[in-house]
Amino acid sequence: MKNLSLIIAAATLSSMLWSCQKAESENGLTNGEVEFSIAAGIPNEITTYGPEGTGSHNGGAVLLDPKDYDLRYVLEVWTNEQTPQLAYQETKYVPDNFTTQSVLFNVRLVAKNYNFVFWADFVPEGTTTDNYYSTSDLTHITYAKDPDLTDDAMDAYSKVVAVDLSSQNTNIQDVKLQRPFGKLRLIATDELSGSLQNDESPASTELRYADGTTIPDVFNALTGKASGNRSVSMMEASVQQEDATVNGTTYTDAYTLITNYIFASDAHTAYAMDITIKNTDNNTIGMRSLSQIPVVKNKLTTVIGNFYSNEGKLAIVVEDPFESPDITVDQH
Q: What is the C-alpha to C-alpha distance for residues 217 and 142, in angstroms, rounded to an integer?
């Protein structure tokens, strides 16, 4: 009887311990784990989609048609240690309303210090594979295919948020991602003379970077650092006419000659390039050589002025972040 009593007591204690562990598990406390929610989105100063090719001061979230693209969010959680370890990874998709629709990640982790690393980019609508960027490891994002620097689908966003789950078991809302790029655009404001307008109208632009020019092609979203050396040379784009907004001023019937999205380092990087503008008959109507054109992270650099006439100067305007004015420099 004594042995039977001991067995019953042991079974009762085991049942009580299992019940306690189950209750702790349901409360998210097993092995020191906690449940944590964090919401992320992109800046929403602009909330409407405009026809592709308009509003070149904007980025992909406005210029891309949501019928063609989804905005993909990738979250990686890394331990905050001398040698970080990947603790969690998840991907979510936003099919439309890119600038107003945020995503919510619900994460269950051991209570310790982490860095929540976010990346967002554009993929063809309804797909789950990489488009321009390989994102299997957010500490080493590379191009998944040859980049077309003129394509607004190359726009992307990133952010790192430090979270101490050992002392913080609250949700975080409204993490706003920023671009790891600078966007470069060239705007022509030349006035066309009456009888020669057909001959002078720009139709295409050729941009040729100086010999030996390289751009970063690797981005570490955990450290925020861009690296690598990819050679760039010549690229072409069709000219788009628009009422161009630059530094808060609108230039009616201006021409957006070409745009580029370039990974930017923390230091200000400047590029030299030659520009050739051609008309609808593919004849050259203007040429310009540019030097020391800055490309700055999360900022828009606009070179604006006369590109295919000999009068006037070109101005360089750097806006932060693709919106508010920051720096203006004249380019002779």
A: 6
